[in-house]
Amino acid sequence: MFRTLFTTTAAICTFVAAPTLAAQCGNTANGFEAWKGAFAQEARAAGVGQPGLNALASARYANGTIAADRNQKSFKYSLSKFMQVRGADTIVAQGRKRKARNAGFYSSLEQRYGVPAGVLLAIHGMETGFGGFMGDSAVVSAITTLAYDCRRSDFFVPHAIGALKLVDRGAITPNTKGAKHGELGHTQFLPGNALNYGVDGSGDGRVDFYSEADAIASTANFLRQKGWQPGAGYQEGQPNFRVIQAWNAAGVYQKAIAIMASRIDG
To answer: Which residues form the Transglycosylase SLT domain (predicted)?
Structure first.
């Protein structure tokens, strides 16, 4: 039932290979067009095809993305404040209902990947309110803007390459909408992670991160590939907490996911 988006080691190696020459980053919109021209050479060398290169050429500097990147206030809250602001009680209540309604689906994911339903549902609820809002920013423009921006260019360049490869494969288009940082779909995968960990959870032969089944299965696959130990605990200090850390770098987010997941799973 679950088929991987990409299975060959060669494909993954091509994706992660570092380009020989780096395009010059910048901190204003002024150099973005020149950067795109240089970055196109890096993208082509990394295996991006013409559809992806066309998407890069049409990308626009995303001022909203830069503003959001400079203003991530919620991650500075205390844990209790963060959970209140993010609606933890609602996520838990809705998560329990969704788990009961789709028990077979979540059971099959746990059997295959070892990840409990509560963790997947907590992430789904936290990221998009269970698909209620998956973003209104153009993914390619957002992620290439962050790759160009000097603040975290090294981190976002591989995800920009990933986004262009997703365009090549028809998984997204130049106009696909996602979050301000270029995350896409129900659980807000960064494009490079979508490229590497996407699986077909619905059985229709393709991977669509705007399909709930595909996005949830891909999240389970990501966590398992990052070292999730079936049956082990996931609260702070337990073996699988470090895997939650691989999903999001903010400590308050990690703790909130662990707490909500345990409440959903009862």
So the answer is: 32-234
Structure tokens at 266: 């009862």
Same domain, 10 and 60: yes
> Does some domain include residue 201?
no
Which DSSP helix (H) or strand (E) runs through 51? helix 50-58
Residue 216 reports pLDDT greater than 50 = yes
DSSP string, 71-133: --GGGGS-HHHHHHHTTHHHHHHHHHHHHHHTHHHHHHHHHHH---HHHHHHHHHHHHTTTT-
49 and 96 part of one domain: no
Residue 164's contacts (CB-CB under 8 Å, 6 or more residues apart) are: 43, 48, 52, 53, 55, 56, 140
The SS3 of residue 5 is coil
Whole-number Å distance between alpha carbons of 239 and 27: 39
**pTM of the predicted model, to two decimals?**
0.88
Number of domains in the chain: 2
d(CA 217, CA 120) in angstroms, rounded, equals: 9
Q: Are residues 139 and 65 in the same domain?
A: yes
Which residues, including other chains, have CB under 8 Å from residue 182's CB and lie 6 or more apart? Answer: 65, 137, 139, 140, 142, 143, 146, 156, 159, 160, 163, 190, 191
Q: State pLDDT tens for residues 73-124.
A: 767 899 999 999 999 999 999 999 999 999 999 999 999 999 999 999 999 9
Tokens at 8, concatenated: 């060959």
